[in-house]
Structure formats: C-alpha cells, structure tokens
Amino acid sequence: MFFNLISEAYAMGPSQPAGAESGGMGNMLIQLAPLAIIFAIFYFLMIRPQQKKQKEVRAMLDSIKKGDKVVTAGGIYGVIDSVEPTTVTVKIADSVKVKVNRNSIATIRTEEEKGK
C-alpha cells in the first residue's frame, strides 16, 4: 500500500519533455512586474522630488548677487558684499566680513522674511 502512493506521485510529474516551457516569457514578465512597480514608486516619491529640489538650490545659488540678504548653513545672517565663482563675502556686522563657500548659503531672505 505504501509503495502505491509513491508511484502515483511520480506518475503526476510534468507531462512535457524537459526544456519545453510553456509561457516562459510571460511568466518572467509577471515576476518582474512588482519590481518595476516598486521602482516606479521610488522614482516618483523619492528620486524625482530630490532632483527637483537640487535644481532649485542650484538656481538659487547661481542667482546670488551683491546686496542680497542671506542665511548661511551655520545660521549666520548677513548681506552679500562680494561674489566670486566659488566663494562669497558676507557682511555680518559693520566692520565684520566673512568669506564663505558659495554652497554654504542656505537661503536668500525675501522681503516678507526681512520684517520678521
């Protein structure tokens, strides 16, 4: 009786010859679909907004000019005194000027923020 069960299990094996798969390409696309969906979600929720923010920061840094009121990454408020390709000189008091890397400018203060 025990041997009868084993022989039935072998009898239910694949009916196609080895190497002949049905729907191989379609099966692969179905398996890759969740991975593609996850990548699309990551792109639209993480990668794309980060690229947009980097573009805005680059445009802000490129638009810096003398007389702009800025805040550095260290939290120092000042006025741009001179602009060079990689550095800017920030006037933080009457006779105090600090030369900082252009990338360390965090924000340019707008008219609404200047009153606060």
Word description of this protein:
- The protein is built from three helices and five strands; from the N terminus they run ααβββββα.
- It is of the alpha+beta class.
- It folds into two domains: 26-63; 66-114, Roll (SH3 type barrels).
- A five-stranded antiparallel beta sheet has the order 4-3-2-1-5, with no helix packed on it.
- Strand 1 (69-72) and strand 2 form a beta hairpin.
Brief summary:
With 116 residues, the chain is an alpha+beta fold. Helices cover 46% and strands 24% of the residues.
Kindly list the characteristics that best describe this protein:
alpha+beta, 116 residues, 3 helices, SH3 type barrels, 5 strands, 2 domains, five-stranded antiparallel β-sheet
Find the structural class using helix and strand composition. Answer: alpha+beta
Report the CATH C-level class of the largest domain: Mainly Beta
The CATH architecture of the largest domain can be named as Roll
Largest sheet: 5 strands, antiparallel
Q: Please tell me what the overall shape is.
A: rod-shaped
Strand fraction: 15-25%
Total beta-strand segments: 5
Q: How many helical elements?
A: 3
Helix content: 40-55%
Give average pLDDT, whole number.
83
List the strand order in the largest sheet: 4-3-2-1-5
Topology, element by element:
Layout: H1 2-11, H2 24-62, E1 69-72, E2 77-83, E3 87-93, E4 96-101, E5 105-108, H3 111-114
Antiparallel strand pairs: 1-2, 1-5, 2-3, 3-4
